[in-house]
Amino acid sequence: MRHPRRAHAWQLLTLAPLALAAQAVCAQQQPAPDAESTERLQEVVVTGNSNKVLKKDSTNTINTLSAEEIRRLAPISTADLLQNVPGIFAEGSTAGEASNNITVRGLPVTGGYRYAPQLIDGLPWFEEPEVPFMNNDVAVRDDLMTRRVEVVKGGTGGILYSNGLGATVNHITRTGGQTLEGGYKLEVADYNFIRNDFYVAGPVNKNWTFAVGGFYRTSDGLRDTGYTADKGGQLRGNLVFQTDDGRTEVQMHALKINDRTAFYQNVPFQVPAIAQPGTPADPVKIRMDQVWPLGIDFGHGTVASSSNRRFTMLGEYGSRQVDMADGIHPDFDIYTLKLSHEFESGWTFDGGLRHSSGSSGFNGVFTGNDTTTAARFNNARFNNDVLRFSSFYPTATGVAAYRLSDGSKVADSAYLDYLIPFVARTEAKSTSADLRLGKTVDWLGEHHLTLGAYFTDYSNKQNFQQSLLVSTMEEHPQLVELRAIDASGTPVGPSVTSNGVMRLGFNGYLADATVKGEALYLQDHWETLDRRLKLDLGVRHQTQRADVVYNVRDQSTNMTPAGVVPGSAADTIADDEVLLPGANQHLKSKLSATGWSMGANYSLQNNLAVYGLASRSFRLPSLEQLNQLQFDPSTPGSKVERIMQYEGGVRYYAKTWDTQLALFYNKFSPRDQYVEYRDFTSPSCTPAGVTVDINSCPLTREFYRRGIQNIGLELEAAWRPPEVKGLELRFNGVVQDPKVVDANYRTVKELRVNDVVTGYTFEQIGEDGRRPRRLAKVMVNLQTSWDLKPYTGLPLKPYAKYTYFGSRYSESQDVNVTLYPAYYHLDGGFIWDFSAKSSFQFHVSNITNRLSFTEGDPVFTDLKGPNGATNRGVSRPLFGRTIRAMYTYFF
Questions:
Q1: For 620-773, where are the E strands, in sequence order?
Q2: How many Cβ atoms are within 10 Å of 243's Cβ, its own excluded?
Q3: Quick one: pLDDT at residue 35?
Q4: What is the mean pLDDT of residues 122-146?
């Protein structure tokens, strides 16, 4: 008897063509496709397939973006580009040009590209797509050397590639031909942005070709940081050798990236007062017309400024100066060798070898949820911090803030908040080899069999640390010095801060991980029934061996410099509790998993096909989980994430209409997870003021599982009405219903009175049946372009794009439920083709200057706004309106 899941899968594959038979009968009466639609029918894709296939014949959903489409969309980042692919939620690219987050078809939003690895020419630039503070997009930058981008979701993506259970994104590079060609693009924007792109490609001789290109860019940043926020670029090139008979090809690629981009995070806001915490039945609903900024402009403001750009940190290394302008700083060398050969026996060999090495820096400022007036903020500081060092301040009655810039006292009505710099440096190496043998066999049709072996060896050495700064919240935030004052307002004792730094070093970790892996996979691409039916059957088995040394910063150390008298005016308590690394913790693990996929595509006629698939993919532990010891090999339960996917769809191509429709169902089964909290009921806790010192309480670990299931419908369509020459309307969108299953645990909640922690309580968390955090049920992308030359004689092509994302929850927990509103984004512009070789493009992003949040923290009842009559929060807003102009020349 067949396994019931597999039986369900085969039913999906066989019933999909029958369900669409009536449409096929009607479609057969349509006129044959013309040359224009024939070109789309002949579109070849390479991602998710062991050999080249036509897009219309693919057995799973695949979306493509050509160089011309990328040019028109004018994305500011990889995430901004992928936002145009149905089923991918890219959170508006609001982090900046790099280090954004995406998620696919309702899979958990964990940050980064965990379930959507970014490939360059079929190989990952770094094996692991989820590395803390080194998002997978930091070294994937499309430029004029990008020929196209292909995105395959599920199915064979999980067989041919590591970690491809959600989506696999393949950025395909230009190579040279026998004709010399090239291009140059100059781009400027209204935030002092200047970017130069170029490429040159052509023959060396009849067997060798070359291509070289890249970009260099500087800008003041999409938000006003007060310094050069983005600076750097990449250079890449390749040489391709092909024998006279075309049976052997060798490709050698090199890529150098050294870039710096600003990282933008949440900004503070306030909303009308809420009386009760949000619940699933009655969530706190954020309405943008009832949201007010707290000192930072939503459209173009940021908490980063020239004042807080540089500061001092303390740690096991001693003292160091940090420059936040270093931002997201990838500095990598990537080398690739690819070889393909067709033997006279009919066997084929395809191999790829890639080595990447370098470093990635992450200097980003996060915002605390503590914005309030200086008077209220200083009162809270007096109670929470100064009283802990009462021996230094025997006559203190309060705290006052003084601007670092000129020493003037901060007005009581000014806004103050914490800034939390995240400073991380990652040294990384990755070597991957993908080797494939292929053979075509005739049996009930034609089978293209592929046997693959994959090897990977990668390492990651990381140092992460935080500080705590105190800053004004205004157009250009200023660091402030906090001083204890007596009843007359005179500063007494040591400084509470040190040049605006409240804690010179706390929180973070050191991690050193080495991971090796091997995989074997087998795929059969079978074409039968006069090539009308295509079947893809595949299986992959992969092993991971990890060796990790992890060291959390948990040793509180007084690092007052020698010669400074504690409690004197030269002293500061900012260095009295610096967290240094503790004892090394070790993790050695060996895990393996097996996945399979089976899909079918049936051509009802030349331009109409139905397809379906069932697959079971897996995800071995990520570097984030390994680095932070997020699983214990000795505990029972699964350490591997798995996803079961079913999908069926239809593709139709005609002169006036293209359609790709997909119905999907995913069931995501997680690894065992745990939540850690400080057990404040333990007698070993140390009292501190009116409550216990929570950091002295023992850590408790509670295990749970958090799965997700989702059903959804994706549509990608293009319409070219014959009545309006040159007009094209494109639509893609998704309607889905993701839900959390099996997630219940408890955490510790702070009890506050007037912003002062007075105690703790346990809070039970239940997520079952809730929509996962930060995911919308509806996402829509509508694009239109119109070539006006047939009507006006002018080579002018106006275009516009409307993007809509439905409402999203801050978290999927059943406490403090906060719902962020739906929002839209309108972009547009025009392209003026001076000739076949040169053009000018004018592009406006967020034309309506729409203000909204892409994601944010919950709004808590006990976090009052500055006037005490509102509630405050933090969230990441859309960028305001920006204007760009581009000139491109091709030869």
A1: 641-653, 657-669, 673-678, 686-688, 691-693, 699-704, 707-719, 727-736, 739-741, 744-753, 756-766
A2: 11
A3: 53
A4: 95
Amino acid 21 reads A
pLDDT surpassing 50 at residue 22: no
Q: What is the secondary structure of 159-202 as a DSSP string?
A: HHSTTTTSEEEEEEEP---SS-EEEEEEEEETTTEEEEEEEEEE
Rounded (10°) CA dihedral 163, 164, 166, 172 = 130
Distance CA 867, CA 359 (A): 45
**3-class DSSP state of 435:** strand
Report pLDDT digits (tens) over 630-653: 777 777 678 899 999 999 999 999
Question: Which among 501, 657, 519, 503 is positioned nearest to 591, based on CA atoms?
Answer: 519
3-state secondary structure 740-751: EECCEEEEEEEE
- Long-range contacts made by residues 682-689, C-beta under 8 angstroms, separation at least 24? 688/388, 689/383, 689/384, 689/387, 689/388
* Phi and psi angles of residue 388, each rounded to the nearest 5 degrees, phi first: -70, -20
Question: How many helices, marked H, and strands, marked E, lie in the chain?
Answer: 9, 52
* Whether pLDDT at 1 is above 60: no
Tell me what percent of the residues of the chain surpass a pLDDT of 70.
95
Residue 792: how many CB atoms within 10 A of its CB?
9
pLDDT bin (cut points 50, 70, 90) of residue 215 is very high
pLDDT at 4 over 70: no
Per the structure block, which two tokens stand in for 634? 């000795």
Distance CA 631, CA 622 (A): 11
CB under 8 Å to 649, separation ≥6 — which residues? 16, 61, 610, 611, 612, 660, 661, 662, 663, 714
Phi and psi dihedrals of 2, rounded to 5? -70, 150
Query: Which SS3 state, helix, strand or coil, does residue 52 take?
Result: coil
Measured CA distances, 39 to 43, 58, 149, 533, 639 (Å): 7, 16, 18, 21, 46
What pLDDT shows up at residue 531? 93
Look up residue 677 and give its two tokens. 């909290």
Total residues found in the chain within this entry? 891
Condensed to tens digits (0 to 9), the pLDDT of residues 854-888 reads: 889 999 998 999 988 999 999 999 999 999 999 99
The helix (run of H) or strand (run of E) holding residue 792 is helix 789-792
The residue among 29, 57, 42, 68 whose CA lies nearest residue 730 is 68
Residue with tokens 């052997």: 248
Mean pLDDT of 17-27: 36
Structure tokens at 660: 């790709």
